[in-house]
Amino acid sequence: KKRKKEKAADEINLIEVGEHIQSSRRPSIAMVTEGKIDSSSDSDQEEICDKCRGPCIQHKLQRTYPQVRTYIGTSNTVCHMMKEKRSLCCLKLDEKCAHKSATSAHEYQWRNRPIILAADRTSSGMYNLIIPLRAYYRPVHDLHPIILLLELEEQDSLNEAFLDAISYFPDIYWMKGKIGNLDCLLKAGVSSAE
Known about the structure:
This protein is α/β, with parallel strands linked by helices. It has helices at 2-13, 40-47, 105-108, 124-133, 160-166, 182-188, and strands at residues 61-64, 79-82, 115-119, 146-150, 172-176. Strand 3, helix 4 (124-133) and strand 4 form a beta-alpha-beta unit.
């Protein structure tokens, strides 16, 4: 009797399929839940991500083509892009701004080891290196921060078009410095770099 009651309770939860079908197989339709599922615990889990050690970066990203196409070569690649453009002040690794207080790679406490790219100036080749490192087929939690160490003179500033282009990519930063200067390399995170 107990088994009949359990079976009857299970059948109540199933979507009705015609009574006229005589078969020993069960229908391939899943059970329907009777009540509303409480999603408050799910939203709490979405806020904290074990891999990100805080709010999950995946909620801030979308898979799309890069918005700024000034530096793109011949092929378009779908990339992990920020839903909202990052402030240009937040791109500079070694300076505080209203949005962040970190001034060195160590202070950011990234989940992955950074990649440092040293160059004397910005170019389309640099942008074309960034594209595959942010391509859609890479898992979001495996994206490495990219630090652009640029040998700019004190009076030189970074090209606004380039800054605008990289501001849509997650975890890309830049700083003035020389590859021969140990202080610059340490600020860029060379001790933990890929």
